[in-house]
Design a protein that fits this description.
single chain; 167 residues; alpha/beta
């Protein structure tokens, strides 16, 4: 990083997340490096989520206008989805796994939203099971809204969709 800074080179960051979840806990991610470089007055070019070009490229590539964005970061996955008008699903067993692990879902989500000055995702699920290539999946989603905080299970809905990996 010192050599890049000395040469006045920009760095490119495709994922602004500071940390990423792994089986044994959180690890430092590319966003932490980009942030450190930026704090030294280095130029950082972000081109992944939550920035609009990645969603525009996805839309053009798949020839689709509507997406369900699934992620574990309120600041990037969920905010990115909201910025382009897509519905979003927050995965609780990701970046915020420790917060959600032994506490009430609604209280944790409300606290996270307040701390980050974020809007709530459309849906929230505990975890996303890895499907075998392309299969139909069925999940129960909680709609985490203020009305849910007051009214409980009436905002739970079942939604079927297909997930596929492309190689």
């Amino acid at each position: 990083m010192d050599q890049a800074f000395a040469a006045d080179l920009p760095i490119y960051c495709s994922n602004p997340d500071q940390h990423s979840p792994r089986a044994d806990g959180l690890v430092i991610s590319a966003g932490a490096l980009a942030r450190a470089y930026s704090q030294r007055s280095g130029r950082v070019i972000y081109y992944g989520k939550p920035h609009r070009p990645v969603f525009q490229a996805l839309s053009a590539s798949l020839k689709a206008q509507r997406f369900l964005i699934v992620g574990d970061s309120l600041d990037h996955d969920i905010a990115g989805a909201q910025a382009v008008g897509c519905d979003s699903v927050l995965i609780q067993k990701g970046l915020y796994a420790s917060a959600f692990s032994n506490a009430d879902h609604d209280i944790v989500l409300e606290t996270l939203l307040k701390d980050r000055a974020c809007q709530p995702p459309n849906y929230s699920i505990e975890q996303l099971q890895q499907p075998a290539l392309a299969i139909d999946c069925s999940f129960i989603f909680k709609r985490p809204s203020i009305s849910y905080l007051r009214s409980g299970p009436k905002n739970i809905l079942k939604w079927n969709f297909s997930i596929g990996w492309y190689f």
